[in-house]
Structure formats: structure tokens, C-alpha cells
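Ticket reopened. Same input as before:
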Amino acid sequence: MTAKQKAAIAPSANGNGDSNGNGNGNGDTKELVGAVLVCGGGIAGIQASLDLSAAGFRVYLVEESPSIGGNMARLDKTFPTGDCATCIISPKLVECVRDYNIDVLTMADVTALDGEAGHFSVKVRKRPRSVKSEKCTGCGDCWTVCPVRNTAESPPPFQPSEPLNESDAIKLRGILARHEGGLGSLMPVLQEIDQAYGYLPKRILEHLAYSWGVKIAEILRVASFYDRFRLEPVGRHVVEVCEGTSCHSRGSRELGERLEKELGIRPGETDKSGRFTLRTVRCLGLCALSPAMKIAGRSFARVNIDRVAEILEQFT
Amino acid sequence: MSAPIRNSSDLDRAQAAGEATRHPQRLKVLVGSASCGVAVGAREIESAASSTVQELGLDAVVCRTGCIGFCGREPMLDLVLPGGLRISYGNMTPEKARQLIAGYAKSGDLQPAWALGHFHNEELVSTGEVRTYSEQSVGLKGIPRWSALDFESRQKKVILRNCGLIDPNSLNETIACGTYRGAFRALVQMEPDAVIDAVAESGLRGRGGAAFPTGQKWRLARQAAADRKYVVCNADEGEPGAYMDRTVLESDPHAVLEGMLIGAYAIGATEGFIYVRNEYPLAIEILENAIDEAEKHGLLGENIFGTPWSFHVTVRRGAGAYICGEETALIESLEGHAGEPRNRPPYPVTAGLWGKPTVVNNVKTWASVAPIITRGAAWYAKMGTKRTPGTTIFSLEGCVKNAGLVEVPFGITLRELIYDIGGGIVGDRPLKGLQAGGASRGCIPPSLLDLAIDTEDRDGETIMIGTGGIIALDDRACMVDMARFLVGFFLEESCGKCVPCREGSKQMSHLLGRISEGQGTPADLSLLERLAKTVRSAAFCGMGSMGSNALLTTLTHFREEFETHIRDKKCPAGVCRIGRGR
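Engineering reply: fixed in the latest deploy. New output:
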């Protein structure tokens, strides 16, 4: 809700208590009065409220969370200038709360909206805050002693999303038996899983995390960092075109394009029959024999582009 | 076979056994079987040679060896004649191999037309011994001496000392060339501090690019108090265009293991890791086999050389992340995390792997250590320059005639490398520029060819070629395209942690794309420059500034070409497809 701003001109609360309700609500002589409700207290809602206030409107700023500020308050820098986010938003937060024309309603939800443009009535429900707000300094001490919310709740322990079938279980047990547990062995273990499956199946990684008692996020972080690890299945033969500097200067682009044409796929893709996956690699170390490529672990150097089709035929 | 090697007479015995297989009393056919050879058909040549030997019933053996460095002539095959004389052949095919072997068996014909050269002597660098072989009584006419080849004559091999001379899977053959003599001397006859003193005196600097004095690094690690210490070999050779570490590991793995063993003893480490790129499966296979062999013979593992000293080495594979070549990122990766660099200090020598003192050295550095121990620091310090003694390896590639790996002392000029050793540019075309020393160094013009190579940039005197890959570009290369390629490389490798690198590289790549597609404006060029300078100064780690460095260097030297793309909407080299889509 915080991202969407809806400004509604409501007929109420312009210092004229009894003018709301039925008095003005009918007929075509609608008196449009200037109170605005802003939904969402993020940076956009705050700025809208400040601008409206400056233009002379009474503003109700409704925010569902306990404080205004939204996502920007959590950022370090903003794109593209790299400016400090806190430095932008903090003065606005202060200004917004101090502005007499702005009523900040936090922990509040809009429950109903009726009427038409220029003539809305809105129902806002303020949730209980369980403290005397006039005395609140925002110190946060109440959170730790709150008898209502302060029930310890830990997330359920991590469980793999599906059980392993027998052959997977045997494979994983075999791999784990060859290594000490723990992160120090993570790379070799991932490499063995990659070797066994051609990629890193999510279900196996989940069970790995479970049996080591480490977070799945930690394993996925490593698995996704390294170029070599793939989280999706690949074709029977992986074609790797060297994109090293030497190969680049000796025709690797043409080689890559020929392979794309022959295989009908772009780098990173697998063909429909699951025979080939095409990818690029930064330097196979065959720089004196450029251009070079590797198919299913077999290297080919000084590749004649017109022989590419012939070479591919060797791999079925 | 697996009797432990405990003293020098055990080493002598292994040496004799290795010598017997290196120079058997019959014809030996050697096939260069490192990755580069295999990629162009070494295995087919090997089976052709074997079947010829079998069919003709010859008294001959067919063996594998590593890479002798002349990669541009792969696949290579050598004949080792009874008596030890060796003749090298390049650009072989299975058919030529058959003809050569059959012809020699029949009439002693050595096919001089196919031969690259013959080895009339060989120097065993580890021991200093020089062996000479008789050139008499065989038809060597028309076959030059290997040592007289342009490609070879200026080289001084220390790191590559045994590459292409031995079977990398044979422990005895490497011992026959003097390997493990240095480790024996260090562990049995020297105090750790004396080892460090020797390395420090030799002036050896890290060969990974940063050129930190190795002796000093070791000393810091030795002085750091801790219950465990580690040594790590950085073989994550991610730099495009550099492949010398792969060659060393595939051709002479024991040179690296021996260096690590000496280093571990010197700093007091009992465990070592070798972090190898995933793209080098053959290197990993050979290295694992070498560790296995060394453990069986008591050269690694418990009680090495019968001393109380123990040292275990484990090979770890990378997973395709360029940044893991940076030592702290490599350590993160070893620990099982995403390979993101750490803040320094603390440096790895005080808090590295699992928070313990760790020495991380490059493959070439480790491989340089043992000869310093056997031949002495003074011998090593005599080579190279004052700032950087010793030798290093360059890979010549791109448009040079003699593409391959060359090991030369520091102080040599780029011109000597390209024109004397490299033999000039293919087709004698003009040299347009070099992409040398790693992607971050951008492209440099031929006007810098006369600078001497060292480990620092001094204006008008020396140039740093950090990671040793030298790609020669002739007039058919487009520098805008090269800049786009280099920036694209760093864009792809950016980890995304900091905004300047993540977004800046993207925008630089976008602007370069516009220029190379003929849609650039003069304003783009100045924006590009400003952006690159911002990224360079604001990125979190060194890698963030590399892409912009590459761009700025290339732009400084080849600005005119960028301007032509913008002004005339034309690519002089015809590489950028202006108006032709993608």
C-alpha cells in the first residue's frame, strides 16, 4: 500500500466540524474543501504531504507501519547519483511530523472510501498502539516488555522441500562421505554434485544444507557466485567458446556466431533436444592456438570455422 | 617401487632410474602432451606413433612429455636417439609421424624439412650440470641446433627448467633433472631462517603481478605467532592471455611442490593448498598424480626425508571466478565462501586462511624457489634487473610468428620479445599495439616497444607486464573493439558489491557500444573519460578500477581511432560493424 498514493479531497475537517456528513453531501453545489488524504508514508507520500501542506491543504498521511519513512529509510545510497539516502529523507521526516497542517496517522488502515473526485469520505482505522502516544519518545523500550507482542517465536527449523529419492540419497551420502563437513569443503562438494548431475539440483542443495546444519542461503550464495556452477540442467554436451583476449583478436566472435547458427541457440541456452548447451568461457589457456573451444571436456584449438559443423557431428 | 626417499643416496637411486627412462638405449618417441598439444591432436599422433612402432616391430618406446614452450608449433613430436640426442619436430600430423618413424627405422632419415631443431646439450638448471650429446654419425644436416633458434637463443630457463624434458607423471625423471635436491638441502641441512635468508638475498619477487619480495613475505609469516600456518599456491590463472602456470603444472608439477615444501618448512606450515582453475582439468589430474607419487615416496606427508617435518598438500579447484586470483578472494573461496576480496590489513601473512598466517604465492614463484637453494642466491641475483632479479615467463600470442611461452630475465625489451624471439608479425604486417600484462593494462602502442620489462612502470625506462600475457595486435585490430572487449570482461566479472564498478562498468560498456556502432558523439567520449576516472577512484577493490584503467590506457594511446568512429562513423580496421547490426 505504501507505494501507491491516492490523494482524496475529503469534505471533512477543514476546521468546520459540522459541515461534514449530509449537509454538503448532496446537490450540485458541492463545496470543494481542501483536505487531502495521502496513503502511504514513504518518501513519495511524505513529499506529497509536504507539498500539499505548503499549498495550503490540510493533509492526513496514513501509514500502515508504526513509522513513516518507508523503503528509502533503509537504503544507504540512491541510484544513479549515489547520494546518501538518509540525508535526503531525515529532514523531510522531521518536517512532516512538525507540520501543523499534516496529521500523521501511523499504524492505520484505510477501511472504506466513498464518494467521487473532490468529494470523498474515508474511513481510517487506527490500530491500538498500547502506549500513551503523547508521552511516547520513540525509545522502543516498550517493545521488549510488551506483554501482548512479546512472545518469543522462532521460525520453524529448515526442512528440505521434498524428500530425496533413493538414488539421489545414495549419491549425496557418497559425496559427503568423502569430505569433512562444513563450509571448508563446500566447493569440492558442490563440484562433485555438479559432476554427478551436470548441474546443481536445488533439492540436493537443500539436503546438503540440512545435513550440515547450515543455511540454504549460504550454499545458494556460493553456488550462484561462481560462473561454473549452474542451477539449471544442461545439455549432454557443453560447448564452451573461449572468449579470452587472444581468441578475441583471432576470430572467436565469428566462431561463436557460427556455433550459434549451427546449434540455433544463444550462449547460455540449451537446444530443444537437450544435446548441446552453448556457453562462453574467459580463456581456456590455449592462447597460442587461437581460436579455441571445448566440447564435453575435449579441447579444440586453431579451430577452422568451416569445420565447426563437422566437429559438432562427433557429439551425439 | 615406493621405497621412501630419505637421504641423498636414495635420491641418487631415483635419479639413475629416471635417467634410464629419459634416455633409454633405444629409440624414444616423445609426444608433447600438455593441453595445447592435446587440443590440436597430440593423442592421435601418439596412437599413430605407437601403432607404427608396433607394426614395424621397432625397438622403440613412445612416451609423453610436457610442453617445451613452442606452442605455436604444436602438435610436436620428438625423437630421442639412442645416445641421447634429441630432435624436435613441429606441426605434426599422424601421417607425418608415421612417415618419420618408418623412415628413420629404415634408413636413419631424420626428415630435416620437418625438424625444428636438435638438442646438442642440455643444462640441468637445478644442479648446474651440462650434458653434451654427440652430433656425429647421424644425418643432422639441415637441422639447426635448438639453442640457436631465434625463439630459444635469448631464453634463460629457470621456472620452465624441466618443462618438455621429462614425463610429468614420472617422479624419477624429475629427480633425474635435480628436483627435490633443493628440498633435501633445505630440510636436512638448513635452518628455516637460513632458507628465508637465501630467498631474500636472491631478490625473488612474487611473479603473480604485484612483485612483493618473497623473502620478506615469508619472514613476516614466520614471525607471526600461531598454532597453524598455511602455504597456498595460487594457480587460479584467470587472466585471459596468460597460460604459463598451466604449462608449469602440466609439465613439471614437482617443481611447484618442491617450492611449496621448502616454503612450508621455512615459515613453519604443515598444510598447503593449490588452488587451480577449473578450466585446467589436465593440470589438476597431473598435479594430483604428482602429489600421490610424492607422498608414496615420503617427499610429502609425514616425516619427509626421515625428518620429523610433515607437510600435506591438497588440490582445490576453482569454479570460474576471475576475482579468485586475488589472494584474499582466493582464501575466501578456499574457506567455502563466495570469492569476494577482504579488506586489508590484516594481510594474509598474519591472518589468512581460517585466520591463520598464510603465504600465498604464484605458481611461477614457487617453481623458482628450489634452484635458489641448490645454486645459491648469488647465482639467481645475477640474472634480471637490480630491482627484480631473476627470470619470468611471457606468453607471446596473437599475431606473432613464434607464438609460445618464453622465459627471459627481467630487463629485456618488448621489441626483443616481439621481433627477436617472436620473429615479428605474421605476414610482416605492421604492429598496431599490444595487449600486454593482463586485461587491466589496456592496449599500448608500438612506441613503447623499447621499454625494458620490469615490475614497475617508470616513464620512458621500464614497463610492468604483470601477468605476462602479450597479445600482439596487427593493423586488422580495432582499438575501440578491444576497449569494449576489455571493459565487457570486467563488467561480466564484477561481483556487484559496489556501485561504481557494477553500474559504472555497465555504462562504460554501453557508451563504448554506441561508439563502436557508429552512434557515438563527442560528448560520449568525454563522458566516458569522466566516468572511467570516477570508477577508478571510487571502486571498492582493485578489480573495480581495472576496467576503467584498461579503457583509459587504450583511450590515451589510440584516441584518434575513437574519434574516427565518432566523426566519420567508420571503423578503420573494419572490425566494428557500423551500420551492419550487431
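The two ends of chain B are 61 Å apart (CA to CA). Chain B is about 40% helix and 15% strand. Please confirm and we'll close it.
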